[in-house]
Amino acid sequence: MDDVAEQQLDLRGLKCPQPVLRTRRYLRTMAPGAMVEVSCTDPLAAIDIPNLVREMGASLQAIRRDDGVLFFVIRR
């Protein structure tokens, strides 16, 4: 992963719709161009977070899965 997120948003353990709602709220506070790595354990986040990023006009830089945790690197 070339881009390194400056900020972390740990949403592990939260169930739908909380991860997407909290990610939306967090993205709204970020400066344009800033990046955040969001970590989730809710399997629906694999669909919801990319859709949210697209809707908000942000950019999904990377997605990875590690031991049941989904990681999304998002550029605002």
H-E string: EHEHEE
| Secondary structure: number of strands | 4
Portion in beta strands: 25-35%
Relative helix content: 25-40%
- Rounded to the nearest angstrom, the radius of gyration is 11 Å
The strand line-up of the biggest sheet is 1-2-4-3
Mean pLDDT: 94
Class by SSE composition? alpha+beta
Number of helices: 2
Topology:
Layout: E1 7-11, H1 18-29, E2 35-40, H2 45-56, E3 59-66, E4 69-75
Parallel strand pairs: 1-2
Antiparallel strand pairs: 2-4, 3-4
Helix pairs in contact: 1-2
Structural features:
about 80 residues, alpha+beta, four-stranded mixed β-sheet
Short description:
The protein has 76 residues and is α+β, with helices and mostly antiparallel strands. The chain is built from 2 helices and 4 strands. The chain has helices at residues 18-29, 45-56; strands at 7-11, 35-40, 59-66, 69-75.
